Amino acid sequence: MKQIESVFEIKIAEVKSLDGDINYSNKKFKITDSIGTKYVLKIFPDKKEWALAEEESFMLEKIGHTLSFQVPQNIKLSNGNMFFKFENDNAKLLSYIDGDFIADVFHSDKLLFSLGEKIAELSIALQSVESPIFASRILFWDIQNTHLSLPKITFIKESERRKLIQYYIDRFTTFVLPVQHFLRYSIIHGDLNDYNILVDQENIRGVLDFGDATYSPMVNELAITLTYMMLNKQSPFEVIRPIIKGYQKHISLTQGEIEILPDLITSRLCISLCNSAEKKHLGQDNEYVLISEKPAWDLLELWSRTNPIEIQRYFYEATNFQGNNNLSKDGILKTRGIVTGKSLGLSYEDPILMTSALFQYMFDEKGNAYLDCYNNIPHIGHCHPTISKVISTQTRKLNTNTRYLADSFNKCSERLLKYFPEKLSKIYYLNSGSEANDLAIRMARTITGRNTVAVLEYGYHGNTATGIEISSYKFDGKGGKGKGDNIIKLRLPNLFNGKFNTGQEYAKDAIDLIEQLSEKPCAFIAEPISGCGGQVPLAEGYLQVLYEYFTANGILTISDEVQTGFGRLGNWFWGFEMHNVTPDIVVLGKPMGNGHPVSAVITTENISENFANGMEFFSSFGGNQVSCEVISSVLEIIETENLQENAKVVGKHFKNELLNLKNKYPTIGDVRGEGLFLGIEFQTKNAQPDKANANFVKNKLKENFILTGTDGPFDNVLKIKPPLCFTKGNVDFFMNKFDGILEAIDSKI
Ligand code: PMP
Hints:
Distance between the termini: 84 Å
Mean pLDDT: 95
Structural class: alpha+beta
Strand order of the largest sheet: 14-22-21-20-17-15-16
Bound molecules: 4'-deoxy-4'-aminopyridoxal-5'-phosphate
Strand content: 15-25%
Radius of gyration: 33 Å
Shape: elongated
Low-confidence stretches: none
Helix content: 40-55%
């Protein structure tokens, strides 16, 4: 320090370390001299930093006098040099800027507006700076390089968080990367976080630390500040308007900049979170590195639950930009009525126009976000980034039919078959549950030479001609012609309000009926829990007794696992396991492709051999390379994201909470199901099916932005079957609204 006293002819009274980040190669000290003047001493142990430090000083000297706030200025030596030797390193002395960090003060709209103005002012000043040194830097902190953070996601321990980062970095590469080079570029500060901005009450006094200055799209400067100012806020989106309004006083954002701003903010959050994860992994985490970690996760998670249209609206409002999101629901409804027929139904009397979805949330055109408690096709979550990636990558390589050999076919088949008992060792791919059931029945008819199929009442197995033939839900429903001669309909073994009290009685009833037939059925098809029957688990023991009888009589057993499969039931990966039976044929669909149309029939070697009677089995799309990659990824994600276990734990919590409400409200007659496949049956005071209340509740839930559906022979069962990433928090949100709705009904009775 003596050196400094002599070089600058001052008497040092106090020296304090200012280093926040242990990884900064430069060391910082606050120095106060004997007459109270404060300075910052910066030491540069890393020689590679010298040129940059010099460039930074030139830049700050150039722009300093044009700004209405302070930036650090070099205190030059008497010979005009910026650097002096400090021990063996280079060092420089800078002016000290007084003030509070903006992180530590209340953010009034006035302050935020002023902040916006100052960012714009800085951007305008920096436009005059030309610096090959800054322009040639590639910094991972720079939003334009967000994709460089992707490899770091392996350092994030929680799979649901990795998925979130993967999703938002994908958005960067899809929506920002291809357009960013058309944006306005300039040198930017690059790290206008809340500890680099100093304020005096509601005025911005200064901006510190230009160590991350780089050449980047100008709008990234604004995005970075917006990111940090949104952290730790009750209503983070509210800060957007004042900051952007202030900014727009000096710089008009272009349409392209406005439209990508939300993605720039999530990108910066991803960079920061990947960095914290890496630092933690390397054991380099300290208070400074992790300070924004929790609030950054909170913000990113909130972002994922918020309708992108709603988020975009904050930016549009702040800039008076109209946007081009003027979808008319009425218009779309009308056109649909013109282009298709009435038999294609819609959910809800007032249908919802969905514009996007993410994980367990769905978003409409008005900006509303719905909690999805109903859709079981996006089994691992809507728009899972791995599935999007796999589809787009494989369609770029090869997507052809199964008459050519492909490794992906074998890999995905071997992987899937591992989930089955050894006996079920052959797989055939199709495109929908209906087609797969159709093939299962065709197999049974081909092999046995018999035609009759035993089905359960209220069962649904598909929309094809055979599908309707075997679905009591359809042939007994509106427009149905009743059961065909080749169908034998068995009673649904329902323990809640059915005829018998045990599975054994129901099985005996079924066997008695079959025994009366002149010719035995070729097959028996059933879901382990009847979805369209009203989420009714087949009574315990029923399938065990029946399967024994069927096997003894050469009747093939088919388990339709289109809804119950792939871990949804929590305790079991397949529904038939819940009944301790092994079917001859298993039918898979919906969840298997997470929305990509793929299904399968799994069967035994013996059935497979006998089915090969010379007639070829071929499906144009079934088992193509894209489908196979998707299936493998779905299985991989179910495993890595622990989704079966999640279905078990969250499903148990959900069911327990519902059972508690059943004790409170007599309108709930029954709560049943397994894992995240639950049903709530509504009843009247006289224990009769209560369709009106079930539908009232479904519509009220929709008004509260919760998606469910009703089903069952009396349409009085509320069905719950959400994506498996559903959380306990989601359950509690549902229960809160559900309880309120039931209370209102209760008080009316
Ligand atoms: N089986 C069951 C049990 C189903 O729930 C469905 C569809 N709801 C199907 C078969 C038919 O599947 P898809 O709509 O894919 O043809």
